[in-house]
């Protein structure tokens, strides 16, 4: 039997997400979010939300973690845990799209270390628009 059960891995990710949340830079919303993902090769990347005085430049915790992983060469996400300073926090629409890009089969772990639920991408982003839709399209010269 493997020493690290799936449940232990999920708890570990939640713990890492909580650690990352403490680095959130949130002077405007005071809503801190942490995320921790696991790649297909088992590495963990974490992220927090980072706000900007120009609000639109804000980056969510999930995308921070994903961009860190992708910029280190990891393009396949198996799990992503998300925690905030309030109750259950689900990824925003933009983050759902970005998770889909790198983890259409990823488990989305929502809650906290002691109490979390696991969702699929199909549940949170049904009928997703992905790379395969573009691959199908003919390149038309305009
Ligand atoms: N935020 C995240 O980091 N992830 C989410 O899933 C929801 C929203 C951040 C963005 C912003 O810094 C703050 O939460 C309020 O929207």
List keywords for this structure.
5-stranded mixed sheet, 5 helices, alpha+beta, binds tetrahydrodeoxyuridine, 142 residues, globular
Element layout with pairings:
Layout: H1 6-21, E1 33-39, E2 44-48, H2 61-71, E3 77-84, H3 93-102, E4 107-111, E5 116-120, H4 121-124, H5 131-136
Parallel strand pairs: 3-4
Antiparallel strand pairs: 1-2, 1-3, 4-5
The chain binds tetrahydrodeoxyuridine (THU).
Tetrahydrodeoxyuridine is lined by residues 26, 29, 31, 33, 49, 51, 58, 60-62, 82, 89, 91-92, 95.
Structure description:
The structure is a single chain. The chain is an alpha+beta fold and 142 residues long. The protein has a single domain, classed as Cytidine Deaminase, domain 2 (3-Layer(aba) Sandwich). It has a 5-stranded mixed sheet. The mean pLDDT is 95. The chain has 5 helices and 5 strands, in the order H-E-E-H-E-H-E-E-H-H. The protein is 33% helix and 21% strand. The relative contact order is 0.16. Strand 4 (107-111) and strand 5 (116-120) form a beta hairpin. It binds tetrahydrodeoxyuridine. Residues 26, 29, 31, 33, 49, 51, 58, 60-62, 82, 89, 91-92, 95 line the site of tetrahydrodeoxyuridine.
CATH architectural arrangement: 3-Layer(aba) Sandwich
Ions, cofactors and other ligands present here are: tetrahydrodeoxyuridine
CATH topology: Cytidine Deaminase, domain 2
Class in CATH? Alpha Beta
Please, how many helices?
5
Query: Helix content range of the residues, please?
Result: 25-40%
Please outline the major beta sheet: 5 strands, mixed
How many structural domains can be distinguished in the coordinates? 1
Q: Please state the overall shape, judged from the principal axes of the Cα atoms.
A: globular
Name the CATH superfamily classification.
Answer: Cytidine Deaminase, domain 2
Class by alpha and beta content? alpha+beta
| Poorly predicted parts | none
Mean pLDDT: 95
Distance between the termini: 58 Å
Rg from alpha-carbon coordinates: 16 Å
Number of strands: 5
- Element order, helices and strands? HEEHEHEEHH
For the biggest β-sheet, the strand order reads 2-1-3-4-5
Percent of sequence in beta strands = 15-25%
